[in-house]
Amino acid sequence: MQSKFKALSLSFKNAPVAIRELVSLDEGAVRSLLGKLREFFSLTDTLILSTCNRTEIYYSHELDLSTEIIKLVGLEKGLVDTISYLEYFDIFHDDKTAISHLFRVAMGLEAQVIGDMQISNQVKRAYQTAVDMDMAGPFLHRLMHTIFFTNKKVVQETAFRDGAASVSYAAVELIEELTSNTHQPRVLLVGLGEIGEDVAKNLVYLGDAKIKIANRTYSKALELATEYNFEAIPFEDCFEAMKEADVIISSVAMSEPLISKQLISSFNIKSYKLLVDLSVPRSIDTAVEDLPGVLLYNVDNIRSKATETLSKRKAAIPHVENIIVENIKEFYDWKKEMMVSPTINKLKNSLEQIRKEELERYLKNADSQQFDIIDKMTKSMMQKILKVPVVQLRAACKRDQAEEMIGIINDLFDLEKEEVKKTDH
């Protein structure tokens, strides 16, 4: 339980997307890497978090294994000269910085979009994988449950998770609100640039929606459609698909609008048609708003909503950080108790062994009544003798001097020798 929890982190802050893609780990790769870490380094308490914005490995070990772990990531991904990627990683060498970083990541303070709601679920999945692989010991179990409790407090007590703070997520949230009364709304996304791709990833949260995606490069549409269980259609078929769609999201770069008033007026709109223009310059003619049943939202409307949410989230950051500090302190109180518990148990066992040996030596001929009285008296004596070192150990924890006090008590009562004798028997 000493200060041996460490972490290495590659994220959008230091690494471009091309590098993040190279080291990104899917679930199979995470499980494989966890297995290798256990096999090569006998690691327990290990967590691997890999998202589109970050790949992080948290682990407990006396030594700094950063270089070895990065080499294993390279082996898993089939990369050569993996050490050249070391410059993109932040290394957290001690438990205080590693634990603090994990709390900040799990709360969304380190996310590309502050307060990202997806990250807490991604952290939970990473923990579940560690549990499934038998890579979570008492330390990691307690740490993760403290994080989940902290996250719950952040949600209940702050505005840090309110609303959608990214344009892409705000767009999907808007679509969800406006299609809430439509059974299996038909959604068409045209264009898979940076924003379009991000929208596609968020569309999975629309539940029962039927989603089609179109892109000038069909292979990209097909790749995303396969990953998220959407339907990919050729770009030239998107105008035909617009007729049936309840929602059309346009995210294409064009000098002239892709969707004109004339095009939309040719459709038979039975109830409504929601158009969301995420392009700059705009790719939907604003005149479509004049048509009955047509609702048009552009990137400025949506960005305004996201910016307002982001301002509220930023204002909540000090409160979130205070909650984190409080809960990290509680975790450390537990951690300190765990540090001294083995020594307390060793001392109890050692004294109990002495007591039993002396009872056997001197009470061979005693009757049961005499034995019970002396047994009770010596137990009481042992508890009183134990009280002072136990109190001193716990006080040393609060002063961050537990290791020093553990060493003194080990030497004073020769506990290491006692442990060896016990093992030999």
TrEMBL record:
Residues 9-158 form the Glutamyl-tRNA reductase N-terminal domain. It comes from the Bacteria. The record marks 101 as: Important for activity. GO terms for biological process: protoporphyrinogen IX biosynthetic process from glutamate. The active site is at residue 52. Possesses an unusual extended V-shaped dimeric structure with each monomer consisting of three distinct domains arranged along a curved 'spinal' alpha-helix. The N-terminal catalytic domain specifically recognizes the glutamate moiety of the substrate. The second domain is the NADPH-binding domain, and the third C-terminal domain is responsible for dimerization. This is Glutamyl-tRNA reductase. It comes from Cyclobacterium amurskyense.
